[in-house]
């Protein structure tokens, strides 16, 4: 029987949580939907593939394992499955992307699918995301970033943040149903035909900004992106990447964060727009660090941020531009 929805989970080093994510989908409240689950392992270390292969015996045909020999990152990891689905004559109409460190807290599969069925112009709809443990809502719906938002975010100063609240990237964590620019890739459902039209995730991105770029391209084609708060998942923030940490002192960001930042702004705003946003981010960082020191507070700037940003963002932006034929 053809599937209505394909669920795609991309794992790297979080086998136990990925298993819990799959189980939450398979054990959801009965809804009459035909759902197939695809679990991609991105060449995880520490024997994840063997653990997943062993667990797959109890899942049977309900789950397809894709054991990759390369760490593709998030977008390319999802593309492994999306491109195979697109080639099938009996392809599902919808795909639900779920992080390995997330699990259903409601029947988000059915709720998100029903929303897409009733909103034909919507290409993507995202769920609410709750923090593991506290179940406090997390920001999961966003505006597209720009020079103003980069400056204000980097300064991280209350009065300025309130003054430019409408330019902030993140919407409030508790957000009613509404159309937004983009939603978190940790829990999002999309029409497969819309993803095919947009040519899936841009493979240039390894991790970070790939879903922002995808939804920017979808919106440019006339599609809508929505946030549906009734659908809920529980998420362990940063478990798979280790980048998100709830501490005052933030470690250096990985090189791929800077590369993704630069590629997103250059692809969506051009070379000159990317330079303006980069200068705004650096200026905001300098001002924010100064204000924090004057107030005797710790800065929230990652270690070595300014130097790494100049080297990995501004340096390449001074080079001749790379042509990108993507729409």
TrEMBL record:
Domain Glycosyltransferase 2-like per the UniProt entry, residue ranges: 7-133
Record-linked InterPro entries: Glyco_trans_2-like, Nucleotide-diphossugar_trans
SUPFAM superfamilies given in the database record: Nucleotide-diphospho-sugar transferases (SSF53448)
The protein's name: Glycosyltransferase
Organism: Paragemmobacter ruber
Classification of source organism: Bacteria, Pseudomonadati, Pseudomonadota, Alphaproteobacteria, Rhodobacterales
């Amino acid at each position: 029987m053809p599937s209505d929805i394909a669920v795609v989970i991309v794992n790297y080093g979080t086998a136990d949580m990925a298993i819990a994510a799959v189980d939450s989908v398979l054990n959801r409240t009965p809804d009459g939907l035909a759902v197939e689950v695809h679990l991609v392992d991105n060449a995880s270390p520490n024997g994840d593939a063997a653990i997943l292969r062993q667990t797959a015996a109890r899942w049977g045909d309900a789950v397809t394992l894709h054991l990759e020999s390369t760490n593709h990152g998030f977008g390319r990891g999802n593309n492994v499955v999306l491109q195979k689905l697109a080639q099938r004559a009996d392809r599902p109409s919808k795909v639900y992307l779920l992080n390995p460190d997330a699990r259903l807290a409601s029947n988000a599969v059915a709720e998100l699918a029903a929303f897409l069925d009733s909103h034909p112009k919507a290409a993507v709809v995202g769920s609410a995301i709750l923090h593991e443990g506290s179940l406090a809502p997390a920001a999961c719906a966003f505006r597209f970033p720009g020079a103003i938002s980069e400056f204000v975010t980097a300064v991280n100063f209350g009065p300025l943040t309130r003054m430019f609240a409408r330019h902030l990237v993140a919407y409030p964590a508790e957000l009613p149903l509404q159309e937004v620019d983009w939603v978190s890739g940790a829990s999002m459902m999309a029409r497969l035909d819309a993803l095919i039209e947009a040519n899936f995730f841009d493979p240039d991105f390894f991790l970070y900004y790939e879903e922002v770029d995808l939804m920017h391209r979808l919106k440019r084609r006339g599609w809508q992106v929505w946030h549906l708060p009734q659908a809920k998942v529980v998420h362990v923030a940063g478990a798979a990447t280790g980048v998100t940490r709830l501490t005052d002192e933030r470690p250096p960001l990985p090189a791929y964060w800077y590369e993704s930042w630069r590629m997103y702004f250059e692809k969506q705003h051009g070379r000159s727009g990317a330079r303006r946003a980069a200068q705004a981010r650096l200026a905001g960082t300098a001002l924010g660090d100064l204000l924090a020191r004057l107030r005797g507070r710790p800065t929230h700037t990652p270690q070595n941020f300014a130097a790494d940003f100049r080297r990995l963002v501004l340096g390449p932006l001074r080079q001749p531009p790379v042509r990108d034929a993507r729409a």
